[in-house]
């Protein structure tokens, strides 16, 4: 490889515990070239999500070619494929990318423009990098999966319980649900996370270590119209089934480790639905471009002051040691908001 065609990256050959020095490695890789509707983006900042740690988690598998993780980035378009219509060289962008392609833990990345948004102009690259995956997940969960109206008047008198409201997705979902006019109840367990959830728009905060219905009743609520589960679906399933209103909807983003008893929802004609933000990109669904549109909508809300970034911790530069630290923070399960790395 010539120096001009090389780029820095962080990847893995083996799936190891994060305290192992080979779990994430500094690499030199070939810089990719865009084709079709791909953009080549120079990555300025990245963020780490639970999906990164789950994909990296120890397993008996070895990669012949290094695998690059990372599904949150903000940067600048360097060049665009011949079929691109939405962006051009020099545009500042942010995106989560696709689970089926090399990730954002590299100096340059190819990403389909249909899942890329314009970076909020009022934010730094680090502040913007905290947002894409969690914003897409929160937006799709609320509006596409739960079917919540974007018109405030439609939601007056309706309520939503957000389980795990202090995390990355919860921090965005709480803000969006509040903007939509819902009564928002978030769960949190520590004083600092309770404060964070209130600061991000929750009207009430309850504990996820106690039955939900009793706590809701103490607030004068007999049920909730929607539940967005962002943590331990199995653990909370029975309590969510008790708290959901007749004909209500529960949406979760957290895979289960044992079957869910859907019979608990039958008498209420209640529904359960999954949200997986990589679905549209993975299957290249006809509505894939909606992720481009919703990221632009989020950028507008940010720039108008209606929504705020959830960046809570910043590390620099971007290299394997700092990325291992970020993975450890996320794996601890006590992370509030998002951790971001910037500058190569």
CATH top level class name of the largest domain: Alpha Beta
User: Which structural category do the helix and sheet elements fall into?
Assistant: alpha/beta
Low-confidence stretches: none
Count of spatially separate domains: 2
* CATH fold node name of the largest domain: Quinone Oxidoreductase, Chain A, domain 1
Beta-strand residue percentage: 25-35%
For the terminal residues, how far apart are their CA atoms? 20 Å
In round numbers, the mean pLDDT is 96
H/E element string?
A: EEEHEEEEEHHHEHEHEHEHEEHHEHE
Question: What percentage of residues falls in helices of 4 or more residues?
Answer: 25-40%
Give a written overview of the molecule.
- By secondary structure, the chain is an alpha/beta fold.
- The chain folds into 2 domains: 3-131 and 286-342, Medium-chain alcohol dehydrogenases, catalytic domain (Quinone Oxidoreductase, Chain A, domain 1), CATH 3.90.180; 135-274, Rossmann fold (3-Layer(aba) Sandwich).
- The chain is built from 11 helices and 16 strands.
- It has helices at residues 50-56, 125-129, 132-145, 152-155, 168-179, 191-199, 212-218, 233-243, 279-283, 290-303, 320-331; strands spanning 6-15, 25-30, 38-48, 59-67, 73-80, 92-95, 108-112, 116-118, 159-163, 183-187, 204-206, 224-229, 244-252, 271-274, 311-315, 338-342.
- Strands 3, 5, 6, 7, 8, 15 and 16 form a 7-stranded mixed beta sheet that branches. It has a 6-stranded parallel beta sheet with strand order 11-10-9-12-13-14, sandwiched between helices.
- Helix 5 (168-179) links the parallel strand 9 (159-163) and strand 10 (183-187).
- It is globular and about 65 Å long.
- It starts with 5 loop residues before the first strand and ends with a strand.
- The model has no long low-confidence stretch (mean pLDDT 96).
